[in-house]
């Protein structure tokens, strides 16, 4: 790696980190010696880059430093491509389209010499032969972002249909299904609903009974409690 590229990469690492990063960790990621990192840190400081920290305790980039965006590296483009491919496999038609849109936007702005890293990436996934249904989740995600309640018509595994008012928390995914996680007013607790079993969803003109962050925190505490009970059995 060229020295200039290494200096930029150090800034990238520090920019994505919320805690001080030690020279040893920087050296490990960049595959150089800690002595080289100390020399690079001194060079960056000499260029008036606002680094906070010292040897032994780690370094962090000052929050008021505005670094202009850098062009993608080949490795970053391959990570973006693979991430988009993984998203396109999820059982969610909206996110699959969004992932394709992201790749198209990136392809429209990167130099021609880098296009090959998207078109003929060195990484890939085996063909998707699952045939999973991909529901449209735009309405649900809008309700989550806006903190609105949702009225669901939900089909159980046995085919029974119930109407439920949900305080939506988030959508969760694995390779086979998409789950709507939310507080169920009918049951008075949190429930996970398979999106492919939702027969109809309507956003209500009614806010959830708390702010979004608090609802998410409440669900996480409920989830942790449920996991402890399962592990104890």
Helix content: 40-55%
Name the helix and strand elements from N-terminus to C-terminus, one letter apiece: HHHEEHHHHEEEEEH
What percent strand? 15-25%
Give the helix tally.
Answer: 8
The strand count comes to 7
**Average pLDDT taken over every residue:** 86
Low-confidence stretches: none
What is the CA-based Rg, rounded? 23 Å
Distance between the termini: 52 Å
| CATH class placement of the largest domain | Mainly Beta
**By helix and strand content, what is the structural category?**
alpha+beta
- From the 3D structure, determine the CATH topology of the largest domain: SH3 type barrels
Apparent shape: globular
CATH architecture of the largest domain: Roll
Provide the number of structural domains.
3
The main pleated sheet reads as: 5 strands, antiparallel
- With strands numbered from the N-terminus, the spatial order across the biggest sheet is 6-5-4-3-7
